[in-house]
Amino acid sequence: MTMSKGANVPVPAPAVRVEVGWGTGPGVPDVDASALLLVSGRVRSDADFVFFNQPHHASGAVRHEGRRTAGGTVTDTLAVDLDRVEPAVETVVVAASADGGAFGRVPGLYVRVLDAGDGAELARFDSRDATVETAFVLGELYRRRGAWRFRAVGQGYDSGLAGLATDFGITVDEPRTAPTPAPAPVAPPPAPPAPPRPVRLSKVTLTKEAPTVSLAKQGGTSGRMRVNLNWQAHRRFKGRGSKLGRAVAARSDLDLDLCALYELADGGKGVVQALGNAFGSLHGPPYIHLDGDDRTGAVETGENLTINLDHKEKFRRVLIFVTIYEGARSFAGLHATVTLTPQNGAPVDFSLDECTVPSPVCALALITNDGGDLVVRRESRYLIPERGVSPQRTVDHAYGWGMRWTPGRK
After folding, report:
1. Pair (300, 161) in one structural domain
2. Residue 38 belongs to domain with CATH number
3. How deeply is 192 buried, as exposed, middle or buried, from its count of CB atoms within 10 A (0-12, 13-18, 19+)?
4. Which residue from 185, 276, 347, 352 has the fewest beta carbons nearer than 10 Å?
5. One Pfam family for this entry, by name (predicted)?
6. Residue 380: which domain range?
7. Same domain, 391 and 263
8. Cα four-point dihedral sign 93, 99, 104, 105
9. Residue 189: phi, psi to the nearest 5?
């Protein structure tokens, strides 16, 4: 159902996926979807802001699922479980922000609401009048007489994501100033509470055109860096209520494994992976640890590696890659997003390119030591093993690690 600005429609589904989409091409700014949970028009705290750096709400009702590129269209998706939205929350605002230009340079911007159960489109709003805006409230889910509705809004801001977030009560960039203390009495008063930590809006997105980033330049010089992989199957729905549609969307048997080949400065080499229980170590060589083996691909969990940047001088290179353990023969039809989050720096993220070959293994990112600075390079390289050759050995051969491999299980 295509809507005009200001129109509203009922949302009969208990859970929805809200998809922000746009056309890609040279010079098109980077676009990100976000959501704000409002009570009386304002957030209750910064935790009510769901976006790329804070991908899920504490209630579990709203999640940022990440991007997918298909053909000439990019989509960034939010999952909203309306039955789990807290009773106090009256509105869930759906917003988008542009990085690297204004929305006047973003073709085909739209938002649509899909039934999470069967994929049926419940509402769609196409934004066609953008000019200098760098942030947009595209629409909102709101309660009316105990039922949920969706309204097409189309309100723009020329102050970016920071201006939009601040307008709804989010603390951005600078911590709040502590109140001026009164003249000291005989007994000093207790110290005022620490100001809340502001929401960090900065991030780095790696693309084919800009595939590398220096961690030092982004402030990621020490502490732990988390590498997260989350995924979902492309949903192919066969009509409202279709059993086949629901079955394809579930893909509960899909199991991807996040792995890392490492080469240390002293020449030591190895692999960190769930296969063979080679989970690594954070405080001793190789200073890389696999947190666990996840089968859901959920944004708040997924597969996670942790790299100890306090020992960055010990690394020569680290190759992050992913294999399909079971549930699919190829990455074709799967959507995966990788996020590297340094403890003291801006997150680095990228999505995998669409897979068009029968590949069960993908090189994600190569981290190299460049004079003491770790440089991250987006690889997004699908590899096809030769007959009888394991995915791990295939990655090894492609990047010249030169290791010996034996069969393993988990």
Report:
1. no
2. 2.60.60.30
3. exposed
4. 185
5. TerD
6. 204-399
7. yes
8. negative
9. -70, 160
Q: Would you say 150 and 8 are in contact if contact means Cβ atoms under 8 Å apart? A: yes
**Residue 19, in any domain of the structure:** yes
Q: Check: CB of residue 170 under 8 Å from CB of residue 43.
A: yes
* 97 within 8 A of 161, measured Cβ to Cβ: yes
Domain assignment present for residue 189? The answer is no
d(CA 117, CA 95): 23
Length of the chain, in residues: 410
Which tokens hold the place of 383?
A: 């590899």
CA distance 186 to 30: 57
Give the chain's domain count.
2
Q: Which two tokens stand for residue 333?
A: 């039809």
